[in-house]
Design goal:
The structure holds 2 protein chains of 2 kinds. By secondary structure, chain A is mostly beta strands. Chain A has strands at 4-6, 22-26, 32-33, 48-52, 56-65, 76-82, 88-93, 106-117, 120-129. In chain A, strands 1-9-8-5-6-7 form a 6-stranded mixed β-sheet, with no helix packed on it. A 3-stranded antiparallel β-sheet of chain A has the order 3-2-4, with no helix packed on it. By secondary structure, chain B is α/β, with parallel strands linked by helices. Chain B has helices spanning 36-51, 72-77, 96-109, 141-144, 149-164, 168-182, 196-201, 229-235, 263-276, 293-302, 311-317, 333-337, 341-357, and strands at residues 18-25, 60-64, 86-90, 115-123, 204-206, 209-210, 219-228, 240-249, 285-287, 370-377, 388-395. In chain B, a hairpin with a 2-residue loop joins strand 5 (204-206) and strand 6 (209-210). The chains are: A mainly beta, B alpha/beta. Chain A binds chain B through residues 7-8, 11, 31, 33, 35, 41, 60-72, 76, 78-80, 86-88, 90-92, 103, 114, 124, and chain B through 132-133, 135, 141-148, 150-151, 154-159, 162, 203-209, 252-254, 259, 381.
């Protein structure tokens, strides 16, 4: 079994039954943030509660990248997904046969391998079209 | 040499009028064998020669550089015999050069110094990002996930197509226009015309953005010499005045509902028009950040060169070509000149100065009286993209 390590700690859950993207919410004004913030950037409230984002959102925009970026080798897709909580998330996109990307389509968050590093599987969140 | 700021009775600083009297640019291109100091020195020497100022008469210097920066102003200025004065180095992504220019303007406007030089320099071919796409800052969350400048503008382009009815041909038209302009500029990196088809058929970088819709990575430098009006009159009978200088950082990304809009770009333009006491219709030419062809269309609206939502119409009308109602990027823009990041914000001001003096050769805007230089840049997770914006308006 290959070791799985998150690309970043504390912002997503690899084996959550309830959700994957771990945001937080201002207890005073209710604004939701992803990634989580230390305090409310809007009202400066200090009390923040956990807020797990929905699994599905709508594709706001996308692009197919044809040059390497970070650890990604082309071609690969990235996009912005609008979540029902009012948060826009940037993430790699995975293709589904017969479901070409279209602005406004329903997308679902998944955990996937982003790249390999020293025999470890580096995992993170990606979105793919809802079947 | 150091002067105390001029105060009014309430203790507020009185701002003096400031002129730009010398402008200079190095060659732009790929020069891995040349240092930033050598490129910067070339630009500074050209600016000194342009106004006939002795190197020892410069009183303060600001230099901008984004990559591998370490005492850039000092290294550049020692090449031309300028030492032993206040020198400051700044970084502000693509707006770095504009920031250096504004800092020198402030120093002179508030009366601390009478003369100063702003330098922007970048050696992209020897930088850590040589041959790569420009990523956000190291350890930036979105950067880990594949975010780059072209990816961002690819996503913006998709929204322009979805919401505004833009086509890939429109984006290509911006590049056609700016490359036509660049053919008239002896200092452009690429003096070559391209057809819409050639641009659309060039290699895809970030769908629908193709290679020829992206500015090239470039080495180069630009410099501008500023001074008080009293000093300016000793050098020239026709000084170009800085009538507005604005710089602003954008807000959190969650406040930017539409990625095609640039709230900071709109605000910094409103501030500039107010400061200059003029309206968009008074502007005779614009030099702006066209790092990606589709971006120029959006910036027309930020600068209020047309009604909101009418950017595409303005492009298609031909009004932003040389000879049109409001030429945009008559220099050839970043698309044909190339984009040494920190140099571009000084270079755009230099171009406006040449037009206001009537010295822009074949690309001259006829009878130009007022010109605007805009810069926008920076990609930080959580903040609106193009996070720093600056505008200078100059007039003769």
């Amino acid at each position: 079994m290959v070791d799985r390590v998150p690309f970043k700690e504390g912002i997503f859950s690899a084996d959550a039954g309830n959700g994957i993207l771990l945001g937080n919410k201002c207890a005073s004004c209710g604004r939701i943030y992803f990634p989580p913030t230390d305090f409310c950037l809007d009202c400066f409230g200090k009390a923040m509660e956990e807020a797990v984002l929905s699994r599905c959102g709508k594709l706001y925009s996308y692009t197919r990248c044809h040059m390497p970026a970070g650890r990604f080798q082309p071609p690969f897709f990235v996009g912005l997904v609008d979540m029902p909580e009012g948060v826009r998330v940037f993430a790699p996109l995975k293709t589904v046969a017969g479901r070409p990307f279209q602005i406004g389509m329903d997308m679902e968050v998944k955990i996937a391998e982003l790249w390999r590093e020293n025999d470890k599987q580096v995992i993170g969140y990606v979105f793919k079209p809802v079947k | 040499m150091f002067l105390n700021p001029l105060n009014n009775e309430e203790g507020r600083i009185l701002m003096r009028e400031v002129a730009v009297i010398g402008v200079g640019q190095s060659v732009f291109g790929k020069f891995p064998g040349r240092s930033a100091a050598s490129l910067g020195g070339e630009a500074v020497a050209a600016a000194l020669k342009d106004c006939g100022m002795h190197p020892k008469d410069i009183q303060v210097a600001y230099a901008a550089r984004a990559y591998d920066a370490n005492c850039t102003a000092q290294a550049v200025l020692k090449e031309v015999g300028i030492t032993a004065l206040e020198m400051v180095n700044v970084e502000n992504a693509c707006a770095g050069g504009a920031t250096a220019f504004r800092e020198v303007w402030k120093e002179i406007a508030c009366g601390r110094y009478d003369t100063g030089i702003a330098i922007g320099v970048e050696s992209m071919t020897t930088s850590p990002i040589a041959g790569k796409l420009i990523p956000p800052e190291k350890d930036d969350l979105d950067g880990y996930l594949g975010m780059t400048m072209p990816a961002m503008f690819g996503m913006v382009a998709r929204r322009q197509m979805e919401e505004h009815g833009a086509t890939a041909e429109d984006f290509a038209m911006v590049s056609v226009k700016n490359h036509q302009h660049g053919c008239l500029n002896p200092q452009a990196q690429y003096r070559k015309e391209f057809t819409v088809e050639e641009i659309l058929n060039s290699r895809l970088i970030s769908d629908p953005i193709t290679l020829l819709m992206c500015c090239p990575n470039t080495d180069g430098a630009a410099a501008a010499i500023l001074c008080s009006m009293d000093v300016a009159r000793k050098y020239t009978a026709r000084p170009v005045k800085v009538i507005a200088s604005t710089l602003l950082t954008g807000d959190y990304k969650y406040l930017q509902k539409d990625i095609c809009a640039s709230p900071v770009g709109v605000k910094v333009a409103q501030m500039a028009y107010e400061m200059a006491g003029c309206e968009p219709k008074d502007i005779d030419l614009v030099e702006m950040h066209d790092a990606f062809a589709n971006e120029e269309i959006l910036r027309y609206e930020d600068l209020a060169l047309c009604a909101p939502g009418a950017g595409l119409q303005l492009l298609r009308s031909g009004a932003t070509k040389i000879g049109g109602r409001i030429p945009v990027n008559p220099s050839g823009g970043l698309l044909s000149l190339g984009h040494p990041l920190s140099a571009s914000g000084v270079r755009t001001v230099c171009e406006v100065v040449l037009h206001l003096r009537g010295q822009a050769g074949a690309r001259q805007t006829p009878n130009a009286r007022v010109g605007l230089a805009q810069m926008l840049g920076g990609l930080v997770t959580g903040l609106e993209h193009g996070v720093t914006a600056s505008i200078h308006i100059l007039a003769r």
